Amino acid sequence: MAQSLMLLSIADLLGKQFFIPSYQRGYRWSPQHVNDLLEDLFSFAKKKKSIEEFYCLQPIVVKKSTWSNETNAEISGWEVVDGQQRLTTIRILMEYLIATHLRGATLKSEYKKEVYSIHYQTRMESEQFLQRIEENVGHDIDLYHMSRAYTAVRLWFEKQDIPRDARESMLRMLVYDKQTQQSEGVAQIIWYELNPMENPIDSFVRINLGKIPLSNAELIKALFLQKTNFGPDKNELARLRQLEIANEWDEIENALQQPLFWAFLNKYPSNRPCRIELLLDLLKEVAIAEDPQLVELIGTDDHATFRYFYQLLYKNKTYDDMKRIWGVVIGCFRQVQEWYNTPVWYHYVGFWVACNNEPLSRIYKAIVNEKLPSREAITNMLEQKIRSLFSTVKWALDPTNQDIFLDLTYNKDYEKVRQLLLLFNIESIVQQCKKNSIILKFPFEAYNGVSIGKGWDVEHIDSLTENELHTKDARKEWLENALVDLENIDESLLLKVRNFLDNEASKEPFENLFTAITKIAKEDRNDELVKDNIGNLALLDAGTNRAYGNALFTTKRRIIIEKDKAGVFIPVCTRNVFLKYYDHAGNTPSTWTSEDVKDYRNAIVKTLERFLPNKPQSITQHA
Fold it and tell me: How many CB atoms neighbour CB 574 within 10 A?
């Protein structure tokens, strides 16, 4: 836990004493790192900005400390737990500016300030070298990297259009604070002070193990739990207040760690160390939507969310103010918790997130900030959002039976088809919940958790064409599956298939075998228009889909059932399709006919009726 957390300008660091302990490695920034920093600083210095804006460097983690110098004199200052590379680079930059721009004058004589000092527990040469930097030094690895960084600084300034003006702008950014800043603005740093009881080595290991940076959530938690928020008295009441917020923070984090809870709010598996950051980001995005100029103050980089909460708490320093701001975070969590616990909202919010149509913050803002008057109004708003996705869908006429159906095809409308099939699965569960007064949840964690690179395919229920079976191996596999799954193959055809499978020199055309077998399976009766339409499409994970490729319906059915029994997630409506749940005529379970297509697409329309454009009574031509 942080003793204190604040934003300090580089000017606020001037005159401070820093200590680099022996457990840290030496300076290692490359010239590219240095150039990137200089470009960022100079771009900010030149841009038009408000007085509230500032350039923010990554956090510096420190702890109050005392140490002895080479003469055994005791020095009080700050042990640097993380941020040595940034501190050293800024010091090298300042040494260059003093030597080149001030031309022999000192920072103290010109600005009444001292450069901050960096002391090393075991590398005295580095400390001395920073006070008088030379280029082209190679006898010591630490000095080599410092020397290269200094050269990179010099070369960067020399290539600027007017080097003197660039040096002046950069120096003004570093020596002035927020109160005295010039037109260039100021550079600030996130100052993270460890509690005196914390072990700095443990903190260093945690931060640098795999180079895990301090997250926004960790920084914001430290903002809320600073001792100064709880009054000047170190009494039991202050401690209990602090403990209350810490416990509520943990409650939120633990809830968001539940896979089902997390997945309906977030499309992708999380690599966030703290999932509460999703809610903190959400509140920041809502605030920006209400006041777009806020971006100028907090920026758009990785620490924008931290700066948003910092400026809130900086302006409101009393315990009551802090409690009110924390109450907004708690309120946000309670809101999404209510979404999760309300089946209709859970499914519609989860669908919207899975389709990734707009930020979660817009749904939150619409529900909370616009103060919808009732639960029914919230449901209607969510339904309207979903309805808008399918507002442009057209209807078509099936010339074979005059049936009017959704004009959505595999090749023309792939993404819209995938969204519609996902909604079909979700709405089927919603209606089951309403009908039976039970709580079921579509497993977004299984849907979203399919391995990246695989994802979800829109699958043809009836094989589209033999043209996809290009190779001998693919054709053999198709025929082998057909022999397993078809029972009524006559002896003559069976011999031809066996000959094709067993005899490499077989002259039997595969196309003839394919045609004969699909006729037996009754899959020759579905024309190409039917095969490519929504009534012949289902949602399936890519791994399962590509495992059986262009197999017969009966083969696909067998594989689906096997995977379902093995615990593989099969969307409920996809499972229903292959189990023939939508078959009103009672056709053979092993076949998929044009009547099955019609029944299936009618089931989709009936289930999703309120999300689709009105179905016309008649169509005179193909829409």
Answer: 23
State both tokens at 95.
């040494």
Distances (CA, A) of 591 to 421, 573, 582: 22, 17, 13
CB 231 within 8 A of CB 252: no
Coil, strand, or helix at residue 186? coil
For residue 94, pLDDT over 70 is answered with yes
DSSP codes of every residue in 15-65 = T-EEEE-TTS------HHHHHHHHHHHHHHHHS---TT--EEEEEEEEEEE
Is residue 588 a contact partner of residue 554, using CB atoms and an 8 Å limit? no
- Asked whether 289 and 365 are in contact (CB, 8 A), the reply is yes
Q: Which two tokens stand for residue 277?
A: 């950051």
Q: Extract the tokens encoding 6.
A: 């604040």
> Identity (one letter) of the amino acid at 449?
G
Can you say how many angstroms the Cα of residue 540 is from the centroid of all Cα atoms in its chain? 24
Rounded to the nearest 10 degrees, what angle do helices 304-315 and 277-290 cross at?
Answer: 70
Sorting pLDDT into bands at 50, 70 and 90, what band is 288? very high
Name the amino acid, one letter, at 418.
R
Per the structure block, which two tokens stand in for 240?
């209990």
Residue the block writes with tokens 């110098």: 69
Nearest alpha carbon to residue 120 among 109, 112, 132, 128: 128
Average pLDDT estimate for 244-271 = 86
Sequence-separated (6 or more) residues with CB below 8 Å from residue 58: 83, 86, 189, 190, 213, 303
Between β-strands 17-20 and 117-120, what pairing exists: parallel, antiparallel or unpaired? parallel
Run of H or E including 134: none
pLDDT digits (tens, 9 = 90+) for 576-606: 998 888 887 766 666 778 888 889 999 999 9
DSSP state of 229: G
**Which residues, other chains included, contact 513 with Cβ-Cβ below 8 Å and sequence gap of 6+?**
479, 493, 496, 497, 500
pLDDT tens digit sequence for 419-446: 999 999 999 999 998 887 777 899 988 8
Residue that wins the pLDDT comparison between 248 and 583: 248
Residue 546 CB neighbours (<10 A): 12
Q: pLDDT per residue over 435-485, tens digit each?
A: 877 778 999 888 876 544 456 788 888 765 544 566 677 677 777 777 776
Q: Report d(CA 257, CA 272) in Å as an integer.
A: 11
Please name which of 258, 400, 453 lies closest in space to residue 337, comparing C-alpha atoms.
258
- pLDDT greater at residue 378 or residue 51: 378
Out of 11-20, 52-61, 257-266, 271-280, give the one with best mean pLDDT.
11-20
Where do the H-state alpha helices sit in 342-471?
343-355, 360-364, 375-389, 414-436, 444-448
Which residue matches tokens 């980001």? 281
Tokens of 125: 């040469």
